[in-house]
C-alpha cells in the first residue's frame, strides 16, 4: 500500500511542478493569470465503514484553479493597447467563436477592424451613419479610416464687447481699407460645401449713442455678389445697461429672426482667377442650404476695449485620420487633421458569477462553461466592471519569488515521496530475505 501512497505523492508533486513551471514560463505574458495546484487526501472506503482512524491512501490533484487578482498596469505608446483596472474581460470573436481575455494587445487590420495579436476581433457597441452609439447591439468594432467629409457652416455664435466710449468715426462712408472709417473688426473662418475656408470679417461702426452698424464681408467681397465689395449691414441698438436690444435689430441684407439672431442667406462662395487684377466668381461650391445663422444676442456695449470673448462655428474642411483616443468608459474617439473628432464605438467588457469556472483555451483566453454561468456584458465603469486604461497593458500577476519557493517545496515533496517508495522497497526486500 505504501507503494501506491508514495506513487500518488510523486504524481502530485509532478503536477505541482508543472503548474509552477507554467506560471514561471508566463511571468512575462500580458494578461496571464497564475494557477494554483490544489490537492486532497484520499481514504479507502467500504460499505461497512473503515473505523474512526483509517489509514490514508495517498493524495490526489483536486483542482488547478486560476487566481484572477489584478496585475500591474504597464504604460505603452500604442493608443489601442488597453488594460482593465478591475473586474471584467475583453470580448473577442474569431469568426463567431466568442472568447474572453485580459490581454489588451490590440491594433487594426486592413479593413479597420480592431483585432488582437491573433486576429480576433474586439467586440463593442458600433455607431450608425450619424455617429450615434448603438447601445445594446454588440458587434465587431471598426475604425473608419476614410477621410472625413467637409461640413458647410450653418451656425455661428459670438460674444463680444463694443467699447461704449468710442466716438463716431471721422471718415465716412465705411471703407474696409481705411481703419479710420470703422471702430473695430474681427474675422472668423466659415466653410462651404466643399470644405473651402472663407474669411468672414465684421466691421463695427458707431453711428451714435448706443447704435452701431455691423458691416460684413466674406473674403473681402459682397456675400451675395463676389463682383462687388459692398458689405452686408445690420443695425444694432444697445440698451442703456449696455445689452443688445435684440428687438431693435434691423437689416436690409440679413434676415432678422424673432429671437434676435440674423441669417445670412444666398451666400455665393467665390474665388479669384489668375487675371491681373483677379476676377472673382463662384468657386463651384454652395453655402449651407439653411444659410448661416449668426447669434450675437449676448454682445455687449460697455466702457472697455473691444474684445471677442468667444466665437464658434460648426463648419470644417475635409480631414484625414490622425490618431485615436479611448477613454476610461471604453468610448473610442478618432481625431482628424481638421480638428474634429468622431466617436467610432465603445468597448464592452464581460464578467461572470464564477470566473473560476471559465475554461482556459490558450492564447491568454478563456471561454464560457456551465460552471462559469452566463456573461454579464456592459461598458467599463458600470456595475462591477472595471475601468479601461488606454495606452497600457496589464502584466502577468505571477510573483516570481513566490513561484521559486514553490519549486523548492515541490522538489522536496517529490524527494520525500520517492523516499517512501525506497523505504517500502527495503522492507519488502527484508521480508523476501527471511528463510
TrEMBL record:
All copies of domain Flagellar hook protein FlgE D2, residue ranges: 161-316
Record flagged with keyword Kinase: no
Residue intervals of the Flagellar basal-body/hook protein C-terminal domain: 389-434
GO cellular component: bacterial-type flagellum basal body; bacterial-type flagellum hook; cytosol
Keyword annotations of the record: Bacterial flagellum, Cell projection, Cilium, Flagellum
Domain Flagellar basal body rod protein N-terminal: start-end pairs: 4-33
Limits of the Flagellar hook protein FlgE/F/G-like D1 domain: 83-140
InterPro entries with a match to the protein in the record: Falgellar_hook_FlgE_sf, Flag_bb_rod_N, Flagellar_FlgE/F/G, Flg_bb/hook_C_dom, FlgE/F/G-like, FlgE_D2, LlgE_F_G-like_D1
Pfam families attached to this UniProt entry: Flg_bb_rod (PF00460), Flg_bbr_C (PF06429), FlgE_D2 (PF07559), LlgE_F_G_D1 (PF22692)
Localization of this protein: Bacterial flagellum basal body
Record-level GO BP terms: bacterial-type flagellum-dependent swarming motility
Family the entry assigns: Belongs to the flagella basal body rod proteins family.
Function of the protein: A flexible structure which links the flagellar filament to the drive apparatus in the basal body.
Designated name of the protein: Flagellar hook protein FlgE
Amino acid at each position: 500500500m505504501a507503494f501506491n501512497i508514495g506513487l500518488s505523492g510523486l504524481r502530485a508533486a509532478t503536477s505541482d511542478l508543472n503548474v509552477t513551471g507554467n506560471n514561471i514560463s508566463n511571468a512575462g505574458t500580458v494578461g496571464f493569470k497564475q494557477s494554483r495546484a490544489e490537492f486532497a487526501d484520499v481514504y479507502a472506503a467500504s460499505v461497512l465503514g473503515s473505523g474512526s482512524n483509517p489509514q490514508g491512501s495517498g493524495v490526489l490533484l483536486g483542482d488547478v484553479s486560476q487566481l484572477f487578482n489584478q496585475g500591474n498596469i504597464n504604460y505603452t505608446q500604442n493608443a489601442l493597447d488597453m488594460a482593465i483596472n478591475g473586474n471584467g474581460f475583453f470580448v473577442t470573436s474569431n469568426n463567431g467563436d466568442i472568447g474572453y481575455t485580459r490581454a489588451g494587445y490590440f491594433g487594426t487590420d486592413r479593413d479597420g477592424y480592431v483585432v488582437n495579436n491573433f486576429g480576433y476581433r474586439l467586440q463593442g457597441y458600433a455607431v450608425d451613419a450619424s455617429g450615434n452609439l448603438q447601445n445594446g447591439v454588440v458587434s465587431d468594432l471598426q475604425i473608419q479610416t476614410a477621410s472625413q467629409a467637409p461640413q458647410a457652416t450653418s451656425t455661428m455664435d459670438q460674444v463680444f464687447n463694443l467699447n461704449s466710449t468710442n466716438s463716431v468715426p471721422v471718415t465716412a462712408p465705411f471703407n474696409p481699407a481705411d481703419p479710420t472709417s470703422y471702430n473695430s473688426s474681427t474675422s472668423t473662418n466659415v466653410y462651404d460645401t466643399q470644405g473651402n475656408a472663407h474669411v468672414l470679417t465684421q466691421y463695427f461702426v458707431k453711428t451714435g449713442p448706443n447704435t452701431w452698424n455691423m458691416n460684413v464681408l466674406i473674403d473681402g467681397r459682397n456675400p451675395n455678389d463676389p463682383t462687388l465689395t459692398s458689405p452686408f449691414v445690420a443695425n444694432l441698438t444697445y440698451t442703456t445697461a449696455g445689452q443688445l436690444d435684440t428687438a431693435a435689430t434691423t437689416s436690409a441684407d440679413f434676415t432678422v429672426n424673432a429671437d434676435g439672431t440674423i441669417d445670412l442667406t444666398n451666400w455665393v462662395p467665390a474665388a479669384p482667377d489668375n487675371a491681373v487684377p483677379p476676377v472673382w466668381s463662384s468657386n463651384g461650391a454652395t453655402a449651407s442650404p439653411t444659410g448661416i445663422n449668426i447669434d450675437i444676442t449676448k454682445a455687449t456695449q460697455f466702457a472697455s476695449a473691444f474684445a471677442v470673448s468667444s466665437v464658434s462655428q460648426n463648419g470644417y474642411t475635409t480631414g484625414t485620420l490622425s490618431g485615436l483616443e479611448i477613454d476610461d468608459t471604453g468610448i473610442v474617439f478618432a481625431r482628424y487633421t481638421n480638428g474634429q473628432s468622431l466617436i467610432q464605438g465603445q468597448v464592452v467588457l464581460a464578467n461572470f458569477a464564477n470566473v473560476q469556472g471559465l475554461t482556459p483555451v490558450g492564447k491568454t483566453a478563456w471561454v464560457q462553461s456551465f460552471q462559469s454561468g452566463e456573461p454579464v456584458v456592459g461598458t467599463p465603469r458600470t456595475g462591477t466592471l472595471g475601468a479601461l486604461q488606454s495606452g497600457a497593458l496589464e502584466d502577468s500577476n505571477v510573483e516570481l519569488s513566490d513561484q521559486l519557493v514553490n519549486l523548492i517545496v515541490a522538489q522536496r515533496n517529490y524527494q520525500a515521496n520517492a523516499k517512501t517508495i525506497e523505504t517500502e522497497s527495503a522492507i519488502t526486500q527484508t521480508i523476501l530475505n527471511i528463510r
